[in-house]
Amino acid sequence: xxxxxxPQPLTPYLFLLPALLLFVxxxxxxxxxxxxxxxxxxxxxxxxxxxxxxxTFLQHAVGFQNYREVFTGDPxxxxxxxxxxxxxxxxLTLQNALALLLAIAVNRKLPGVGIYRTIFFLPPILSxxxxxxIWFWIYDGHFGILNxxxxxxxxxxxxxxxxxxxxxAWLANPKTxxxxxxxxxxxxxxxxxxVMFLAGLQTIPEELYEAARVDGASAWSRFxxxxxxxxxxxxxxxxxxTVLGTMQIFALIVATTGGGPGYHTEVPITRIYxxxxxxxxxxxxxxxxxxxxxxxxxxxxxxxxxxRRAT
Length: 311
Fold this sequence. Notes:
MetI-like fold, flat
């Protein structure tokens, strides 16, 4: 019997079977239930599960009504996208710029470099709830460290005495709440970009920098003509992870503002959470989740297409 006609062994497929079962049980099946529930008017508490009996399912089916409400009857949901987009824009620029600068600084042969690498990577591995509570105390309008620092500056620096009596509830003020949350998110998230940028810098041959120094290139020229082009693939990956991570921010909002004041820090995940548990509208929340997932998928595909062009 030739090799082409020989029966293929089943052993490789048996090894793949557990992973396939896990994927079906924890990904495909929940996605099916999520999609089906998005076409229902279900509060999550009536006696019978709508999927147990087809007749019950039909009684609570509302077609595309939930989707129509998402697009035309819920301005807060789209406002939450704009607010999450604002945090994302700040993270893409300030957070990633800080991560890159720190990675370049730590990439040099300096004493104590290992300590700095550890310190810069600590914030991302901390619990978001813990980080949120700590920063909640820092931003406290009466006894927060930030307000106390501003008061001290006003008392000691000439010309800034007006700051001595300044008290601001950073997380309760609609004008500052979103920026305050963005600062917390950037402080916690820059470590991931720092590690990835540092790994990318260590793959660049040192000979390129040596040759540039011999030719008299300045530090800026070495960065622009050597570091920047060779880090483009890393920059794209960091940007994709930043967008996906920031758009799905949730625990940090819950621990600090809860979406307030007055929806000024509401983001898509908290809006979906409020629709499901706050208003007991499981079907509508599932429709919001489907729309949110499609938007994130579109953004990811666009970024991956940009990555292929950049590399």
